[in-house]
Amino acid sequence: MVAELAARQWGVVSRAQLRRLAVPGATVDYWVATRRLLVVHRGVYAPGHRALRAEGYRLAAVLACGAGAVLSHRSAAAHWGLLATEQTVIDVTAPRSRDGVPGIRLHRSRSLDARDTTTHEAIPITTIARTLLDLAATVPEGRLERALAQAERLQLYDHRAITDLLARSNGHRGKGALARATRQTPHLTRSELEVAFRKLVRRAGLPDPLENFILDAPDHPRLEVDFYFPAHNLVIELDGWETHRTRAAFKSDRRKDAALTSAGYRVMRFTYEDVVHEPDTVVARLTPRSAPA
């Protein structure tokens, strides 16, 4: 039973869980003494070995902080896939005071709402909205914006949940930063926007276009376009933030469109808002032009 529990929990178990399995405390102490259980934190063990994945160390940290504890802040963002982190200290939020635990950054919160916690891949964790709120209080705005963009790309972003959380988060240090960040579009890089468009095309069952393809036009040889549907002579250009936000870029885009049009190509442009928030509209515009005959 202990082995089965550990297998479901990234290779870790707690003393409290062993007690619920009717394992006597003296037996647990004997297993620890004989290294059948290896101590990860006080009261948290790895049966047989300590070659744990990151998820195992995260869950061990949560178990070490007692009932009601959840993974939070940057550690929660890493577990959700919103931000990569190289930090070795693990962020945990617990509803009551507890002595410090080495290797754990403990955030005490007596008012952590049940609506703001969940379980993801067997680890108790703050919800996406609460994770973003906690990030807003602890990371620079640029990293918060990147986490928001990643949540959009993973289809985890829920604006209604964030709005609800902000309405009941008076006094939280991240409230202002998250409110500002969610009033504007989280910007994807060109490569990220291209990935989102390619996924949209495949979900719609459209033929795969050529990507970053070179075309020739009169007086404008070797024009690189984002996507090209050769069967329909259709060029798709994606207006990402980094490469299309200046007046010079706007003029350059229009000159490029004019050159392609004069060479007989049809050109369509889509923005971040189009691809992420209006995918059905994008597909409807593409379908008559790019669908197979």
What does this structure look like?
With 293 residues, the chain is α+β, with helices and mostly antiparallel strands. 45% of the residues lie in helices and 21% in strands. The model is unreliable at 242-246 (pLDDT under 50).
Largest sheet: 4 strands, mixed
Distance between the termini: 59 Å
Helix percent band: 40-55%
Summed over residues and divided by their number, the pLDDT gives a mean of 87
Order of helices and strands: HEHHEEHEHEEEEHHHHHEEEHHEHH
Number of strands: 12
Beta content comes to 15-25%
**Cα Rg:** 25 Å
Q: Strand order across the biggest sheet?
A: 9-10-11-12
Q: Note the overall shape.
A: elongated
**Uncertain runs:** 242-246
Total helical segments: 14
Task: Tell me the number of structural domains.
Answer: 3
> By helix and strand content, what is the structural category?
alpha+beta
Which key terms come to mind for this protein?
3-stranded antiparallel beta sheet, 45% helix, 3 domains, 293 residues, 14 helices, alpha+beta, Endonuclease, Chain A, elongated, 4-stranded mixed beta sheet
In terms of topology, how is this protein built?
Elements: H1 2-8, E1 13-14, H2 15-20, H3 25-33, E2 37-41, E3 44-47, H4 54-64, E4 70-71, H5 73-80, E5 90-94, E6 104-108, E7 117-120, E8 123-126, H6 128-136, H7 141-153, H8 159-167, H9 175-182, H10 190-203, E9 210-217, E10 220-229, E11 234-239, H11 241-244, H12 247-262, E12 266-271, H13 272-277, H14 279-290
Parallel strand pairs: 5-6, 11-12
Antiparallel strand pairs: 1-3, 2-3, 4-5, 7-8, 9-10, 10-11
Brief characterization of the structure:
With 293 residues, the protein is of the alpha+beta class. Helix content is 45%, strand content 21%. The chain has helices at residues 2-8, 15-20, 25-33, 54-64, 73-80, 128-136, 141-153, 159-167, 175-182, 190-203, 241-244, 247-262, 272-277, 279-290; strands spanning 13-14, 37-41, 44-47, 70-71, 90-94, 104-108, 117-120, 123-126, 210-217, 220-229, 234-239, 266-271.
